[in-house]
Write a sequence for this structure.
């Protein structure tokens, strides 16, 4: 949960690097909260036409932090932010982006700063 809160505190911080653990722990809690929002929409009867109001509000509220942590994660492996658009390529783009996001950090310092793994140790 601390990783999720850390990303939210860095709401629009696109500078620096985000280690693999930070990104994936954020994504785990992000998915859990999305499921909870959908569940609450259904239970509270807010999802009459398929989509309730809580889910889109949650997604809008977390769009910028999700984008920021993804950009920082790409910078951690030495890629520029535009690599996020690889996910738009049909069929293989999402898989390639997933592979990039799962890749281990660049060792030492790169153009975006020191390795956060080493800074945390």
């Amino acid at each position: 949960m601390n990783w999720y809160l850390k990303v939210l505190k860095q709401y629009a911080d696109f500078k620096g690097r985000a280690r693999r653990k930070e990104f994936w722990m954020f994504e785990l809690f992000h998915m859990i909260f999305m499921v909870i929002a959908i569940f609450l929409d259904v239970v509270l009867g807010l999802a009459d036409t398929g989509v309730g109001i809580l889910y889109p509000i949650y997604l809008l509220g977390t769009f910028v932090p999700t984008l920021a942590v993804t950009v920082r994660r790409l910078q951690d492996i030495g890629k520029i932010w535009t690599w996020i658009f690889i996910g738009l390529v049909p069929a293989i783009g999402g898989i390639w982006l997933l592979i990039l996001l799962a890749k281990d950090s660049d060792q030492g310092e790169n153009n975006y700063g020191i390795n956060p793994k080493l800074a945390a140790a």
